[in-house]
Amino acid sequence: MSRESENHHISRIDQESKNQHGWYVRMRFRGQPISRFFSDQKHSGTEAALLAAKDWRDRTFRELGRPSTRRRVVKLGKPNQGIRRVDGPHGPVYEVTWAPAPGKVSRTTVSINRHGEDGAFLMALKIRRDKEREIYGAVL
Predict the structure, then answer these.
(1) Which of 53, 60, 102, 139 could bridge 38 with an S-S bond, Cβ 3.0-4.6 Å?
(2) Rounded distance between C-alpha atoms, residue 56 and residue 79, angstroms
């Protein structure tokens, strides 16, 4: 597991002007912010403060009944989410979009004239589902 995913919701604070060094845990639950600071000095070092921050974060998730975001949680949308019918430069198409990485959107089109209305939609749906499996893995 990468360091980033191990430390989700945890930020490092090093503010020399206030002699403030430690780890800051931030999360939201039902619209309310929840946070706590774990100072290096109080916990006898950087690593111990980080361990305390992780422990508090994990315990807080359990107490709130919130799933751990260390694993990817995928909310399945409507079957045709990411598919729309548009008029392309060469006729009507189904445009399929997906996000292979944060901040990046990819798209392709399927011709309705070439494959027919139903055939084009089914092809677009298959493309979208295949891309979701590539990104998120198999749906359990």
Answers:
(1) 53
(2) 38
